[in-house]
User: What shape does this take?
Amino acid sequence: MESEEEEEGAAAARFASSWSIYENREVLARYAVLDPIGSGAYSDVYHGKRRDDGLHVALKEVHDGKSSSRELAALQLLTNSSHVVQLLDHVWLHPGVLLVLEFLPGSLAEVIEERKEIPFQEFEARNWMEQILKAVAECHSAGILHRDLKPSNLLISSDGVLKVADFGTALVLPVENVEEAVKDSSSGKKKLKGGAEFDRFGSGKKLDSEEIEAWLQGGSFKLKSAATSSEQQPETMVPAQIRGSKSYDRLEIEDSGTEVSPRVSDAEEEEDGARRSSDRNDRYSDGEWEKTSNKDSDWYKVGNDDFRGEMTDCVGTRWYKAPELLYGSTSYNFAVDLWAVGCILGELIQGEPLFPGASDIDQLSRVVRVLGVPNETIWPGISSLPDYDKICFNDDRPPVTLARILPRASGEALRLIEKLLVYDPASRLSASQALSHEFFSGRASSIDAWLNAGSRK
Ligand SMILES: Nc1ncnc2c1ncn2[C@@H]1O[C@H](COP(=O)(O)OP(=O)(O)OP(=O)(O)O)[C@@H](O)[C@H]1O
Assistant: This one.
């Protein structure tokens, strides 16, 4: 067996050229850097050991200044929260920061993957769900919107405690904004500073004809010159009309108003590859959008002094993205996290993602196919959302419904999901309301006690 020093040496030799952690004497004096664990859009994470006492830690090197400030600010506010990864230390790097975190060896994504063939019993789903909701309640009561809840960001300790991690896109609300944020803010009245406009359904890059062909064969969209009859379409497909807009130049359809039909029909065929690539890469592309759309703007800064009450809609991994974000809302609230929680609960019960969209428009169309076409009656304020006028869904078929896509869910589980996956953010349950839902009945009193005692350790 290799000694710890040999292990360290081998890891350093493998990554020395690109990983700055190995050049930081302050870090190396205090921590032994073992293997790399993974990397995300803005970070590299290593398994490490604290030299003082041999404690296993995760060393998260965050390269991006904005993500560093967000993550550090959020984690500092959430110190001692029982379902949030704990920050043990931090060291400023140039650029970015090294976060020393408690080491959490598992994730809910791995658990779901392992249990693909043997679906969770409802009591197991309930156990995970309760911990997720407690995590979200802790974040929200501290004024923090996570904005990227997904199974791979829900880590699990060796003794089975679920903790939310990855606050790189979190929004830390100043105390005075917390109350305002819990009210419905779906009307999209606030705009990004500078009126930033950007292509939300594509990369913003104009593709040449060969690239378009390749992209179409990749199965994200099918261009149609005429309205597609609903009989020809699989049940999960919703025709979407992009209303001639410069924003959608990826398909070069701005002049024609061409009908675009998200191809959801290939779901099975694409499932494996798409799931992985979407889940892993969306944040990256969202990150890119965020940078390109706001590159000249200081629209967002972390911390009470700089908060302007304006938000980006480019957050979250697509499959868990709330409809208000897909419609371009820049004044959303905590409810975006609860939509993601609803998607995660559905995935726990069903063993597969509920809405594995291949693009933002495909994402929205999958939601619309299940919940129906949203309108002012069921979602007051939707018509003022920035992208509402840019896309419409021509579908008069009855919605598929959540009950049909969740055949494994019990009545209680289904009723909870139906209260989380609600179009109108104002009608979505909050984390603490969800914890008191009948799905957890019999245990409601212990949850109340937990909430009343404060969620902190
Ligand atoms: N405290 C921790 N303990 C163990 N592993 C961790 C810890 N924090 C992060 N990781 C792992 O490191 C990887 C990247 O972490 P994280 O998601 O926080 O980074 P990111 O750059 O924000 O990623 P992404 O862009 O995928 O959201 C993930 O595989 C995650 O499981």
In short: Residues 37-43, 45, 58, 60, 85, 101-104, 107, 153, 155, 165-166, 168, 283 surround adenosine-5'-triphosphate (CB under 6 Å). The chain has 15 helices and 14 strands. The CA atoms of residues 139 and 199 lie 30 Å apart.
